[in-house]
Write a structure and sequence with these properties.
Number of helices: 8
Radius of gyration: 16 Å
Shape: globular
Number of domains: 1
Structural class: alpha/beta
Number of strands: 7
Order of helices and strands: HHEHEHEHEEHEHHE
Strand content: 5-15%
């Protein structure tokens, strides 16, 4: 079955043989800097899908930086397509600070949300998590449950400290994992820079 693809994506149709990371990078014309980030995302998802725990493969936090037009979204698009080809789309979630950016990186199999919606945060009430029992809280709990292994947040530089604390609180409530919470708080642990050439 062929699924229509958004602008900038290849057709979302399973190939007979899942492409390698290098083949995917070539298909999306990633330059060496973009491919380094892409390969880091691929290896992280492969490790989590293989069931490696934090002892074997420590929690990762990758901040992808670059000027507008540097290709950050292209890296996300390539990675999401690769995950689809390998049957790992259900282990990846994507969101962005604004709905405009969220809709730009959504795929036919990976819907995207604003961070406020994804984490059930009320930006008009001090970035507090919506109360238990609310529809927003229940939806966030569903989105954050396993098998989710990798979370991509676009427009990370737009996120205020208060909003980041709301994300952290939501992760603690819905995942109950300090490792995931530490992952968000240690957002500068590893930086990958993409420069526009």
């Amino acid at each position: 079955m062929q699924v229509p693809a958004p602008h900038g994506f290849p057709v979302y149709e399973k190939e007979a043989t899942p492409p390698t990371a290098d083949e995917t990078a070539a298909r999306f014309t990633l330059d060496p800097q973009q491919q380094r980030v892409f390969n880091t995302l691929v290896s992280t998802l492969q490790a989590r899908a293989a069931g490696l725990g934090l002892d074997e493969f420590p929690q990762q936090c990758i901040v992808v930086q670059g000027e507008p037009g540097a290709g950050k979204s292209q890296v996300f698009k390539a990675f999401l397509w690769w995950a689809f080809q390998h049957g790992l789309s259900d282990r990846v979630a994507i969101c962005a600070y604004t709905w405009r950016a969220a809709l730009n990186i959504a795929t036919p199999v990976n819907p995207s949300y604003s961070t406020a919606t994804f984490f059930a945060i009320n930006p008009f009430n001090g970035d507090k998590v919506q109360p238990p029992g609310s529809a927003a809280y229940t939806s966030a709990r569903t989105r954050l449950r396993p098998p989710l292994a990798l979370l991509l947040i676009d427009e990370f530089s737009f996120i205020s400290l208060e909003h980041l604390c709301g994300i952290n609180k939501s992760l603690q409530l819905h995942r109950g994992s300090m490792a995931v919470s530490a992952w968000v708080l240690r957002c500068v642990h590893r930086r990958e820079q993409i420069r526009h050439t």
